[in-house]
């Protein structure tokens, strides 16, 4: 699964092609692969990643595209590459990109590969295979060729009632748990959980233990 979701802080929209601009931060909880060949190499558990994300308006700047099988329910890409914008930083490395896709889940059935990923994040149990969830995320390619996915998952399937385009995770951000994944080919693959975790995430017992573990790693 290359989706993960986060606590967000909405800021005022700017007078540009962007309809929504918001900030996101996540603490690293897992480094799956690090061969040392990526500009993101050397990441440590507990490192904080911050992102500024801009997304396009609805039908004016985004168009529906066919989802990759088993990876989402409905996906939207920008009519113009400049309609998306993202800047990601870990404090030492900063990169940006202007291409991306937004995907929407409405009562999505978590599959085996998704469940394993969430288990590796410490979010097994409640988010197990077969669990129905609503979700929002953005996938973007950065200038160095790496890809980042940021988004939200909620077990409250009343958050979304359809698969319509949404230019921000407003709504689901308050009901769900935020996640991040960062990948640079075979050189680097890591994942993080939102900081701070949305209030609803405290309902996930495994998230409590994960957060305590992250704090210990940072001290």
Summarize the structure in words:
With 219 residues, this protein is mainly beta. The protein has one domain. It contains 3 helices and 12 strands. The chain has helices spanning 112-120, 172-175, 205-218, and strands at residues 8-10, 18-34, 48-56, 62-65, 74-78, 85-89, 94-97, 99-109, 132-141, 147-154, 177-184, 188-194. Strands 1, 2, 3, 4, 5, 6, 7, 8, 9, 10, 11 and 12 form a 12-stranded antiparallel β-sheet that branches. Strand 1 and strand 2 form a beta hairpin.
- H and E order: EEEEEEEEHEEHEEH
Assembly annotation: single chain
* Helix fraction by DSSP (H/I, runs of at least 4): 10-25%
Helix count?
Answer: 3
Biggest sheet record:
12 strands, antiparallel
3D shape: globular
Number of folding domains?
A: 1
Structural class label: mainly beta
Radius of gyration from CA coordinates: 16 Å
Low-pLDDT stretches are 1-16, 201-219
Number of strands: 12
**Cα distance, first to last residue?**
30 Å
The share of residues in extended strands comes to 35-45%
Average of per-residue pLDDT values: 76
């Amino acid at each position: 699964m290359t989706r993960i979701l986060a606590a967000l802080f909405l800021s005022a929209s700017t007078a540009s092609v962007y309809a929504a601009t918001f900030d996101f931060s996540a603490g690293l909880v897992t480094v799956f692969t690090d061969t040392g060949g990526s500009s993101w190499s050397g990441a440590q558990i507990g490192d904080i990643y911050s992102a500024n994300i801009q997304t396009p308006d609805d039908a004016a700047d985004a168009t529906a595209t066919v989802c990759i099988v088993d990876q989402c329910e409905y996906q939207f890409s920008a009519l113009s590459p400049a309609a998306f914008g993202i800047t990601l930083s870990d404090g030492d490395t900063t990169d940006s990109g202007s291409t991306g896709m937004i995907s929407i889940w409405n009562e999505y059935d978590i599959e085996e590969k998704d469940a394993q990923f969430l288990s590796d994040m410490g979010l097994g149990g409640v988010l197990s295979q077969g669990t129905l969830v609503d979700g929002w995320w953005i996938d973007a390619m950065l200038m160095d060729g790496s890809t980042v996915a940021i988004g939200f998952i909620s077990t409250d399937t009343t958050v979304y009632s359809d698969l319509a385009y949404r230019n921000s995770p407003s709504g689901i951000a308050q009901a769900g748990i935020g996640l991040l994944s960062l990948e640079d080919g075979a050189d680097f693959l890591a994942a993080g959980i939102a900081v701070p975790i949305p209030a609803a995430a405290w309902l996930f017992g495994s998230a409590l233990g994960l957060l305590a573990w992250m704090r210990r790693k940072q001290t």
